[in-house]
Specification:
Belongs to the class-II pyridoxal-phosphate-dependent aminotransferase family. Histidinol-phosphate aminotransferase subfamily. It is built from eleven helices and twelve strands. The protein is of the alpha/beta class. The mean pLDDT is about 95. The protein binds 4'-deoxy-4'-aminopyridoxal-5'-phosphate.
């Protein structure tokens, strides 16, 4: 008889046994609003500029890339300074293949075996998975029923567990709401009193926010890290470019774990081209913010509950059986996301036509349900 080797037959680490990989189900349906992507393809002049810069890079592909990505970090610092209300230098910026890799490097440096990290859930589930992958213990911290962070309970959890790394996602995924600066400051103080620990603010969606980036909080807080990505606002999820801003010492520290030449010359050239077109791309962000606000208003008008959103997606409910509703929306040709938050689903803001298709589907569904 034939024996098929399964993952668990292999001598893998115990903590990986029986686990499934991260990933949203991808289905071939007309309207896909499930992964918080930017629905707008890059503008043609930018596509042409990428081709130009990648051609230049290709002529030197026999050489390793700039290991320290100095030009890219300089341009990212310029972007943050221009948009974040705070002067940032290239020594404060580090980049990697998506913010997931940035977060992994942070946990490899500041977490790891015998150490712990805390997040306030529901939140971005990769924080817990990257913790597991780096051998970092995970602590699930609390949130209120309205998905705001219960600051007093969070302070108690930090004091009790004394985690080495604290994750704060703002705007939060999958709920959409932003965390007020005062709450972040309170948790930073609690984390410093407890250990001190590294506080990582994941601002993947901050360009879509009604409010401001927390970059100015970096001043005088050497254990604070702001994580960013070009996957959402820059419409470049396929590029895989994430970055962080922090005290230069944090940037020096992650050098201890980063793989040499982790950012390819092609990636660096492409990201630099995209940064040349920042203004055009931020124009799309404005359009998406308007569409996000429209989704919130229309969902409420139809009679759904909606969590306040500062992101490019909206959490709506409440449903007795969210997964059954997810399926009914899918039957109407629209793929949204069931993140496993009981009673709630998440829809990413798409083009006006995609959002109309989604709104038609849930309007129709409301009639069926009532
Ligand atoms: N942080 C948050 C909160 C996210 O939602 C995502 C993407 N879903 C990421 C980080 C990772 O993005 P990337 O690796 O594409 O930069």
């Amino acid at each position: 008889s034939e024996h098929v080797t399964r993952i668990d037959d292999l001598p893998i680490r115990d903590e990986l046994r029986g686990k499934s990989p991260y990933g949203a189900p991808q289905l071939d349906v007309p309207v896909r609003l499930n992964t918080n992507e930017n629905p707008y393809p890059l503008p043609e002049p930018l596509v042409a500029r990428i081709a130009e810069r990648v051609t230049e890079a290709a002529r030197e592909l026999n050489r390793y890339p700039d290991r320290d990505a100095v030009e890219l970090r300089t341009e990212l610092a310029r972007y943050l300074t221009r948009t974040g209300g705070h002067q940032v230098t290239k020594d404060q910026v580090w980049a990697a293949n998506g913010s997931n890799e940035v977060l992994q490097q942070l946990l490899q440096t500041f977490g790891g075996p015998g150490r712990t990290a805390i997040g306030f859930e529901p939140s971005y589930s990769m924080h817990a998975l990257i913790a597991r992958g780096t051998g970092t213990g995970w602590i699930s911290g609390p949130r209120n029923d309205d998905f705001t962070i219960d600051v007093a309970a969070a302070e108690r959890a930090i004091a009790e567990h004394r985690p080495h790394v604290v994750f704060i996602t703002t705007p939060n995924n999958p709920t959409g709401n932003a965390v007020p600066a005062e709450a972040v400051l309170a948790l930073y103080e609690a984390a410093q009193a407890a250990r001190p620990s590294l506080v990582v603010v994941d601002e993947a969606y901050v360009e879509f926010s009604h409010g401001d980036s927390l970059l100015p909080l970096l001043d005088g807080r050497p254990h604070l890290v702001i994580s960013r990505t070009m996957s959402k606002a820059f419409g470049a999820a396929g590029l895989r470019l994430g970055y962080l801003a922090a005290d230069p010492a944090v940037v020096d520290a992650v050098q201890l774990v980063r793989l040499p030449y982790h950012l390819s010359s092609v990636t660096q050239a492409t990201a630099l081209a995209a940064l040349e077109h920042t203004d055009t791309l931020l124009g799309y962000v404005d359009q998406l913010k308007r569409e996000r606000d429209r989704l919130v208003a229309e969902l409420r008008a139809i009679g759904y509950d909606v969590t306040e959103s500062d992101a490019n997606f909206v959490q709506f409910g409440r449903f007795e059986d969210a997964h059954a509703i997810w399926r009914k929306i899918l039957d109407r040709g629209v793929l949204v996301r069931d993140n496993g938050v009981p009673g709630w689903l998440r829809v990413s803001a798409g083009t006006p036509a995609e959002n109309d298709a989604f709104l038609d589907a849930v309007r129709d569904l409301k009639k069926e349900l009532s």
